[in-house]
Amino acid sequence: MTCGFIYRDMIEEIRAVCFQHVQGLVSANDVQRVVQRGELTIVAIEEKDIRNFLTNVEGLLEEIKFTVDDELQLAESQKVAQQVLLWLSERENKGSRYSSSD
What domain of life does the native source organism fall in (predicted)? Predict the structure, then answer.
């Protein structure tokens, strides 16, 4: 449920791709593409924290791609996807208090 978000559809797309990645259904590149799209889509000042978080996530995924051994990349990128799911849930539960911290 994302009733507290301005960009509900984008948040749902990010959640869906992260969940699918944790399940092994989509690649880390798919997650990175959706996260990048989220960075470009989420522009409201009230959700600046989300955009900043997504920028950091995109950087982490890029770092994994170039610094982690191939056989470990899936597990590492799945950890990032799990962190995204957790962060978005916490952000939604905290509402506007969370967005005013940045």
Answer: Bacteria
For residue 94, how many C-alpha atoms fall within 13 Å in the half-sphere facing its CB?
Answer: 14
CA separation for the pair 78, 31 (Å, rounded): 10
Can you tell me the distance from the alpha carbon of 12 to that of 66, in angstroms, rounded to the nearest whole number? 28
Q: Is residue 11 within 8 Å of residue 84, measured between CB atoms?
A: no
What's the CA gap between 39 and 84, in Å, rounded? Answer: 14
Of the candidates 59, 54, 61, 18, the residue with the CA atom closest to the CA atom of residue 39: 54
pLDDT tens-digit readout, 12-51: 999 999 999 999 999 999 999 999 999 999 999 999 999 9
